[in-house]
Design brief:
The structure is a single chain. The protein is 38% helix and 12% strand. By secondary structure, it is an alpha+beta fold. The strands form five sheets. A four-stranded mixed β-sheet has the order 8-9-13-12, covered by helices on one side. A three-stranded antiparallel β-sheet has the order 5-6-7, with no helix packed on it. A two-stranded antiparallel ribbon has the order 1-2.
C-alpha cells in the first residue's frame, strides 16, 4: 500500500479515510488513478478538472471512500458492486462486520488493479465474474445452527461474517494454528482459487503447475478429510507456506498466491516509508526508489523482491521482539517455497 496526502493541505491521510483530520476536506479515492480527490463541502463535487466523480452508494452506509465517474450509471464503486449478498443489517454487529469486510475487500481490489488482473464482467458474463457473498450463520426451526462456510466456487466467494469479529477470528486462529488468519488473508486466499481457474486451468502452464504444486486431480474432499484427521506432515514448513497448504494442490496454490500478495503489498508499503533499504524520501506522493514506476507491483523479476523482503522481515521480527510482541513474520522461506512464489509471480506478469 502506498502513502497518500490530502490534495488540499498535503497532510498525510490513509487509504480508508473519508475526511482529512487537518483541513476537514471530504476525501475520495479513484482506483483508476490511484489518487485521493477532495471536496470542501457536502454539496461540492470531486473532480480533476475534466472529469467529475460521485461517491459510492455505500459511503453513508459503511464509509466506503471510493469514487465513480459521474457519467457512469453504476451507483457502487468497482469493489462494492462485486458484492452480491450482504448480511442482515438488523442483526447486532452485522453492519460493522460488513464494513470491515468491504474495507478488506477494497485492499484486495487495490492489488488486483495494481497487478492489472481482470475481475470479469458482471453484466454480460456474471457466471464467470468475481463475486462475493457475506453471510452469517442462522438458526433452523429445530434450534440447530446452519453454518456458513467460507470458500470459493466458480468465481463466487462466500465469507462468514463472523470472520470480521476479532475475538471469533482469534479463537479460530489459535484453534487451527494459523499465524496469519486475517480478513485480508481470507480475501487473498479465496481469489487465488478464482485466478487458478482463470490463469492455470486448461492453460499451457498446467503441467508446470503440477510439477511444482502437485496434481490437482487428487480427490479434493478426501484430501481435506485426511488433512483435518491427520494434520500436516512433519517438516511441512520446509515446502509449504502454511500447514493448510499441505491439504491439496489447490490449497497450496491459493495459500502461496495470498502470500505473494502479502509480500508485494508489504514491500510497497515499506518502500513508501523508506523501510526497504532504499533511500527514504519525505515526499508522500513519490515513486519508491529502486523500483519501476509501478513499484514492487510492477517488478518484472522475482528475485529482487525476495532480496528486499527477507532482510525486511528479519528486521521487523527483531522490532516486534524488542517491544515484547510475537514475530511480525513467523515464516521461513525455503528454495521450494521460493519456486512456488516465483511461479505465481510469472503467472501474474507473463499472462499476456
Amino acid at each position: 500500500m502506498r502513502r497518500y496526502a490530502c490534495p488540499n493541505c498535503s497532510n498525510e491521510v490513509h487509504f480508508r479515510n473519508t475526511e482529512c483530520v487537518n483541513c476537514h476536506s471530504r476525501l475520495g479515492y479513484v482506483p483508476e488513478w490511484d489518487r485521493m480527490f477532495y471536496a470542501m463541502s457536502d454539496d461540492a463535487r470531486w473532480h480533476d478538472g475534466a472529469t467529475a466523480y460521485k461517491a459510492c452508494a455505500n459511503r453513508p452506509e459503511i464509509a466506503c471512500n471510493w469514487l465513480i465517474e459521474e457519467t457512469q450509471t453504476e451507483d457502487h464503486c468497482l469493489s462494492c458492486r462485486h458484492t452480491l449478498v450482504i448480511p442482515d443489517l438488523s442483526a447486532p454487529g452485522n453492519r460493522d462486520h460488513w464494513a470491515a469486510l468491504e474495507e478488506a475487500k477494497r485492499r484486495l481490489f487495490y492489488s488486483i488493479e495494481k497487478f492489472q488482473l481482470g475481475v470479469g464482467n458482471l453484466v454480460n458474463q456474471p457466471e464467470t465474474a468475481l463475486r462475493f457473498e457475506f453471510k452469517a450463520d442462522t438458526l433452523t426451526a429445530d434450534g440447530k445452527t446452519r453454518r456458513v462456510l467460507t470458500g470459493h466456487e466458480h468465481g463466487l466467494i462466500t465469507i462468514n461474517v463472523a470472520e470480521a469479529d476479532d475475538p471469533t477470528r482469534e479463537k479460530y486462529r489459535k484453534a487451527m494454528g494459523e499465524p496469519y488468519r486475517t480478513l485480508i488473508g481470507h480475501f487473498r486466499h479465496e481469489v487465488g482459487h478464482y485466478y487458478w481457474d482463470d490463469l492455470v486451468f486448461n492453460s499451457p502452464r498446467l503441467e508446470a503447475y503440477r510439477a511444482i504444486f502437485g496434481d490437482e486431480r487428487q480427490d479434493y474432499g478426501e484430501a481435506l478429510k485426511r488433512h483435518y484427521d491427520q494434520g500436516a506432515p512433519a517438516g511441512w514448513d520446509a515446502t509449504h507456506v502454511s500447514s493448510y497448504a499441505c491439504a491439496h494442490s489447490w490449497e497450496d496454490f491459493a495459500e502461496t498466491w495470498a502470500h505473494y500478495f502479502h509480500i508485494v503489498d508489504g514491500l510497497e508499503t515499506a518502500g513508501w516509508y523508506g523501510l526497504d533499504g532504499h533511500t527514504p524520501d519525505a515526499g508522500l506522493n513519490r515513486t519508491p526508489g529502486g523500483w519501476s514506476d509501478a513499484g514492487p507491483y510492477g517488478a518484472q523479476e522475482f528475485r529482487p523482491l525476495m532480496d528486499a523482503w527477507v532482510p525486511l522481515t528479519v528486521a521487523m521480527n527483531a522490532m516486534n521482539r524488542s517491544i515484547g510482541l510475537g514475530d511480525f513474520y513467523p515464516f521461513v522461506l525455503s528454495d521450494t517455497i521460493f519456486a512456488k512464489l516465483e511461479f505465481i509471480h510469472d503467472l501474474i506478469h507473463d499472462r499476456g
